Amino acid sequence: MSDRIIGAIEAGGTKMVCAIGHENGEVLDRASFPTLAPAETVPAMIDYFADKNIEALGLAAFGPVAVNPADPRYGRILNTPKIAWQNYDFMGDLVRGCGVPVGIDTDVNGACLGELTFGAAKGLTDVIYITVGTGIGVGVCIGGQMLHGMLHPEAGHVLIERAPGDDVPSTCHCHTRCLEGIAAGPAVQLRLGENNNVLSADPEVLEQEAGYLAQGLMTYILAYSPQRIILGGGVPDHTPELLPLVRTKTLELLNGYLSTPELEDIDSYIVAPSLDGNQGVMGALELGRRALEAAQK
Ligand code: ZN
């Protein structure tokens, strides 16, 4: 283990967290910049890294983002509602501005990589990380590599079955009954109504939310066969009752179809994040480390 300094960016819709650290995940310094237009925000970030002697940089970005090196749009933010960022060559500008190798992935793949390398999934190779917040994102790691394919997984948009009588509109502009549209934070808020913003305080909505998330998890378990599932994001983080309910309902839905030691130990199979909110930044550090390793080959 050397003491090389790696840069990390967790690029979110409202703020950019920039940090430097060692490749063992130790974060040495961090700063936060509001997400404005690229012309304002990116020079400020490049400036932050200018005197930090970084040898590589990892970028975990809001998506959709082109993460496949064979894609001519590689490193660009794609069709985001944030107009100023559409088609923006985020990685290219960082490579030119910082003069170091840059590794890029989605924010949720970054969080998954953080937990895989340093946290709740350390030592495993096939893991998914779900974040339930303003949207639902799913990071997927298969055989120790983040899953990309033609783009990257968008598994928050799998279709689910609504509970009888649930006619609350979907908050997804493309789908009337995808998981994100029915179970992300804004949809939960619609169900809770104006006078309550605490999911724990409404047992009926809580139960329904757990059932919806369990439908998503069942699909991910069947399709990706993960060794562990990490359930993070604002909704589960603020609702301690949710995780046990999701475990129970996921097993109910699977209904004995799969029999594995992992599922028999469900409390160790579906778990909370373990890195105190640092999984994104630490995953970006690992993205940077991997970019440096690739550049030195
Ligand atoms: Zn959708």
Please characterize this protein's 3D structure.
The chain is 37% helix and 18% strand. The chain is of the alpha/beta class and 297 residues long. The chain folds into 2 domains: 5-107 and 277-295, Nucleotidyltransferase, domain 5, CATH 3.30.420.40; 120-271, Nucleotidyltransferase, domain 5. A 5-stranded mixed β-sheet has the order 3-2-1-4-5. A 5-stranded mixed β-sheet has the order 8-7-6-9-10, sandwiched between helices. β2 (15-21) and β3 form a beta hairpin. The chain is globular. The relative contact order is 0.16. Zinc ion binds at residues 157, 172, 174-175, 178, 180-181.
Order of SSEs, N→C? EEEHEHEHEEEHHHEHHHHEH
Mean pLDDT over all positions: 96
Structural class call reads alpha/beta
If classified by CATH, what would the architecture of the largest domain be? Answer: 2-Layer Sandwich
CATH class of the largest domain: Alpha Beta
**Ligand list:** zinc ion
Helix content: 25-40%
| Biggest sheet architecture | 5 strands, mixed
CATH T-level fold name of the largest domain: Nucleotidyltransferase, domain 5
